[in-house]
Design goal:
about 120 residues; two-stranded antiparallel sheet; mainly alpha
Amino acid sequence: MNHQHAEFRNRLRQLDRKHAKAAHGFRARMRSDGLIVVEPQKVVRSGISGKVFILFVVVGLMFKAFLMAALGYASYDYRVAQLGEGSMIERGGAFLMQRDPVSYRIAEELRPLLR
């Protein structure tokens, strides 16, 4: 009886997996022999996870802070203002490179190390 129960549980697990895959819909396709096969729709996931996004933001803030500390605040603001007078892409870059409180605070900590 235990063997039959184990086989039954195995079949239930397989059905649960199949049902979970099918939760996002089905897709029908015709094989080369003419048989129509219905398969679960594959879920397309983004290649960028939350951790990667946060890492990207942190690296961007560190880069801005390094530039502010290395160039000085007046020079940095002047260069960002010049960038803001350029093309649409350059204006977008100037918007992203504006001085913000977080990068300013990091730059304050980096200044003694760079001077």
